[in-house]
Design goal:
The chain is an alpha/beta fold. The chain contains 12 helices and 10 strands. The chain has helices spanning 59-68, 96-107, 132-144, 151-154, 160-176, 191-201, 222-228, 248-259, 274-283, 294-305, 311-325, 335-341; strands at 29-36, 43-44, 52-54, 73-79, 111-116, 181-184, 210-215, 264-268, 288-292, 329-332. Helix 2 (96-107) links the parallel strand 4 (73-79) and strand 5. The longest helix is centred in the middle third of the chain and has 17 residues, at 160-176. The two termini are 41 Å apart. The structure holds zinc ion (ZN).
């Protein structure tokens, strides 16, 4: 046996770290947190073990817990006290995210990112203003107890262009309350440009935009909808979010967002779309973020609860894979646990 090449020579302890191609750092991780205006106490989220919705009064304490693990950045989601058809509480000066942000930026050094969308604030749960036809179908469904329309008809839900102005208002209100970066997630065509223009017009030229550029219409978001109470009341989001079958289209979405001024480009979800993460990373010089979503978290937690997986090992391996695929930033519910283990 004459083997010249033996890759295992490099795998010995002492050497393996020297030749390791990818390293996870706590500073790569962004921890999502949920601020809830409907509660005075922390409420556990059943489908996401270890995560809670917190009232505004607990927002600073929650951030301090996250920072204690070494994670330096959070992304805030809000559950408002009330919802309406246009989601007006999303840009209210005394809105739940705005109030929490003021406290967080006054009292901590965390880098505070905000999710910019309407689905948690609209009574219909869609990520924008309803298109007239969709509104009519929904009202009919409410009175008749069912949506008796064709699938093709129900796929159209949100009026794209009317939504743009509202997204600008939300982003501006977040920036005014101290957001360090805004992250539009509504998958509205033109959202990055509209938000950039509004922010610049209001003097927030230094607030970067992390765009959910390639956001798929994914079944892996399920547990998040428990957490943020943002499930659509009718229909689904396949009109505005991307078809999981497409990857070339993700590059087109990314190009459009770069043209409109996106500073960071996100792919969501992460693990089922690592090919997309890699292609986006190859396509652009901008930093790439990947969102390791609630379903990716919940399925590992469920298997670990049954004793079928070692949660610490699979969490780390998941994040390492996302980074290896090309993500610079990772939004993940594992942020605190993994950061602590590093
Ligand atoms: Zn949304």
């Amino acid at each position: 046996m004459d083997l010249t090449h033996r890759p295992r020579r490099l795998r010995r302890d002492g050497l393996r770290d020297l030749v390791s191609e990818t390293a996870l750092q706590a500073s790569d991780l962004i921890a999502p947190m949920f601020v809830d205006a409907t509660t005075d106490e922390r409420e556990p989220i059943e489908s996401m073990p270890g995560h809670e919705r917190v009232p505004v009064s607990e927002a600073v304490a929650r951030v301090e817990e996250i920072e204690a693990t070494g994670v330096e950045s959070v992304i805030l989601f809000g559950i408002p006290e009330s919802k309406d058809s246009r989601g007006t509480r999303a840009w209210a000066e005394d809105g739940v995210v705005q109030r929490a942000l003021r406290r967080i930026t006054d009292e901590t050094d965390v880098f505070a990112i905000t999710d910019v969308c309407l689905c948690e604030y609209t009574d219909h749960g869609h990520c924008g203003v309803l298109d007239d036809g969709a509104r009519e179908r929904w009202e009919r469904a409410e009175t008749d107890g069912g949506v008796a329309t064709s699938e093709r008809e129900t796929s159209l839900t949100v009026d794209n262009d009317e939504t743009l102005e509202l997204l600008g208002k939300i982003a501006e209100s977040h920036a005014a309350a101290g957001a360090d970066m805004v992250a539009p997630s509504s998958a509205t065509d033109g959202m990055v440009g509209a938000i950039r223009e509004t922010l610049d017009g209001a003097g927030h030229t230094d607030v970067p935009i992390m765009s959910y550029a390639a956001k798929y219409e994914s079944a892996f978001y399920g547990p998040f909808r428990d957490a943020a109470d943002g499930a659509p009341a009718f229909g689904d989001r396949r009109h505005y979010q991307m078809d999981p079958a497409n990857a070339d289209e993700a590059l087109r979405e990314v190009d459009l967002d770069v043209e409109q001024g996106a500073d960071v480009l996100m792919v969501k979800p992460a693990l089922p779309y690592l090919d997309v993460v890699q292609r986006v990373d190859e396509r652009t010089d901008q930093p790439v973020a990947a969102y390791n979503v609630s379903g990716e978290y919940a399925m590992l937690q469920a298997a670990a609860e049954k004793g079928w997986l070692d949660i610490d090992a699979v969490a780390r391996e998941s994040l390492l894979s996302i980074k290896r695929a090309g993500a610079d930033l990772i939004l993940t519910y594992f942020a605190e646990d993994v950061a602590e283990s590093l």
